[in-house]
Amino acid sequence: MDIKQYMQQVGEAARAAAREVARANTNVKNQALLAIADALERDAGKLVAANEQDVARARENGLEPAMLDRLTLNAKTVASMAEGLRQVAALPDPVGEVSEMSYRPSGIQLGKMRVPLGVIGIIYEARPNVTADAAALCLKAGNAAILRGGSEAIESNQAIAACVREGLAVAGLPQAAVQVIETTDRAAVGELITMRQYVDVIVPRGGKGLIERISNDARVPVIKHLDGICHVYIDDKADLDKAVRIADNAKTHRYGTCNTMETLLVAEIIAAEVMSQLGRIYADKNVEMRCCPKTRNLMQQLGFGWLKAATEEDWHTEYLAPILSIRLVAGLDEAIDHINSYGSQHTDSIITEDYGRARRFLREVDSASVIVNASTRFADGFEYGLGAEIGISTDKIHARGPVGLHGLTSQKWIVLGDGQIRS
Asked: How is 31-95 classified by DSSP, letter by letter?
């Protein structure tokens, strides 16, 4: 296969399809989404069988556990993909939405209209569910999509792509509205991220190495986050039952996700009571605790014996594994300083019953999602009511946090006049 020629054909087809999708009304787009959902549920057995081929090959190739977890599909996850499509179909269509209308002294009426971005390229690793999520969000937002999944999920992605094509045909939309790249050749990625004449934005989803490469080499705008170094701070005004429950969930609900807590901060004054409970929970779940000197001394006093010392590198690390950094802090100021110094501007949470401290945390922590009295695991498009998400953005321009429908659109100025001329 001539990769350059193939990708040029994909880009040309996507640009043409984008114009048709942008014109499609809400009913047509929803019809496609619901038909895709029905096809996924009907073919759940085929999807799982295809995925089993991918998983077996990945195990043979030594794929790490966190990636295997993301790669694996089962009947429940297929049903979740279908439900995500139906939720996106049920969401209000942002395309054509007009806002901020006002009259100017000249008599013209001025406002903004929400419009599709155009063609969105999405590059992802070991997450076959992204194929369905991305197709749904891009279609509903009036965009065409070029999807390049990881080589480890090629069978799964092509099986899902067949369902997507079926749904597009049912609604009378062009097949090129969603194209899943058929080659695993990495040169296809290099072409995709430099095709400015065809692609309007790139969304990378995967490991830090992939995202850094895309960010450095792309000639197309990129929506991204590099790390998910998420924190939970347990304040001395926290409800301890809430604190223990949340800190447990934020770390152990799933280890391989970007919204999993990687560093726990605890106010010194309540540390003994908190860590006597949390330390036992983490130990029982085989979570390796890497502790600051104060935490290590405390844990030894509590009978936990020797624990690994946290290094400077640990505070900067997204583990995606049953490993947790723990630091005792004097209070809110030190917690905020730590988060803003070491965090990745992804998701951070405070556990406190003090309203003033909660408001300070919300205002001063510079992250895409800032949470009070809940787990960091809620930083997710599905949980935020977006139906699904295209990814998480820690950038500050255009889209920030979980990126749903509105993040896949832009706005243009509209002017309504009645014969006015400028003097």
From this structure: HHHHHHHHHHHHTHHHHHHHHHHHHHHHHHTT--HHHHHHH---HHHHHHHHHHHHHHHHSPP-T
